[in-house]
Task: structure prediction
Amino acid sequence: MIGACPVCSGTDFQNAYRYSRHNVVRCRGCGLHFVNPQLDDAALQSLYEQEYNYAYFLQRKKSICQLARSRIGFIERMVPPGRLLDIGCMHGFFLDVARARGWMVTGVERCVPAASYAREQLALDVREGTFEQLTLSAHSYDVVTLWHVFEHVRDPHAVIRRIKALLKPGGLLVMAVPNIHSISCRLQGGKWPWLAMPEHLFHYDAHTLPALLAREGVPCFCVKTVSGDSEGLLCAGIGGAIKNRMPSVQTFSVRCKRFVRPVRRFVAGAVRLLKLVFTPINGVVCQMGYGPELLVVARNESDA
Result:
């Protein structure tokens, strides 16, 4: 049970969302949302091993690599290629893209099959285990990245302190997390996919995450909301709901199939059109600070 908020040290919490396996509370002092009580380490590890769909990320390799190119391009507008550490690197697609652009890359991944894929299929330097357990060289990285990882971290202060020790003076910490104040969360409430996951221990916004980093002496100089991993999430959810309610062609007789196929093609086309409509709207939403993903960049201002 968490007794004090890690952002403001407050102790006044209110229940926000309740699920079958976890309860999400909100700190009345700063607005941070977090799971309380949290699953123990054994339960979390079992969840990652038995329920986490790592194969899904392999199936999305093309779109993940496209997003990785956008992310590394964003970083290169701030610093030239150097040494980069990606925490929670999964199959290593982001690292592979960064290496091709001249970065010297290292990854950390707790999932054995994903880490093995990165090493064996992509020939990447990926260390297997949790970030807290592994030995890494101090003051040796120009950039440390966490793409949808920090919300899984049980002790955010300890992780930030360790990252700070690994960064060179002036090095950058770049991370993305789900945005609890996004319009998609406001619309979906307790059905927001990222909120319903018990392994998402903390839920940050544009105030709470920079405040937490500032407490550890790693001030943010860039805070914005983007689409990121959730590109087309709302559209995909609407389209998926429609298509899931459409019966398959095989359930109909031969005479009916010729009518069902055109309907299903029409629905597929409508979903593609829906995505085209939502894309410019999503851009405006992100500019207003209500995008589904929060992207922050902080600088290590301590001396080596």
